[in-house]
What does this fold into?
Amino acid sequence: MLIYNSQYQILLLDTRQDILIEEFDFESENYTPQEYKKDFTDLSQAVVDKVQDKYTVKKILIDMQNFRFVITPELQKWHNENVFPIVAKVGIRWFAIIVSSDVFASVSSEQTIDEHQEQFFTTRYFSNSQDAFNWLREVN
It folds into this structure.
């Protein structure tokens, strides 16, 4: 089920497994800080509107293989203050992340997530979707 779609990313809900699936496009390389904030604000609102109180979703697979944007410390802070609390409120507890092949994008996204992982989430990083899905199926 489609939850959100932009030129940078798509968010789907697998209703059979109650797993959100977020996939980034190579176009993410062209984010500006303002577009990044707008995209994640819109995505967060879509999750609240289409998922919260309608589904019991506690798991998300984030496929960052095509993610190419370097998240600055300022944007990391913004993301931690404006996106993660909404995701946590919806009930997401487990993050399976398929890492980007772009080293700088990968490090900056991991820093964004790791800063708040203990407070809200359990996070694991993977190099492929099969391992990520397998782990999500195992956690309760």
Summary: The mean pLDDT is 87. The two ends are 22 Å apart (CA to CA). The chain has five helices and six strands. Residues 97 and 125 are 5 Å apart (CA to CA).
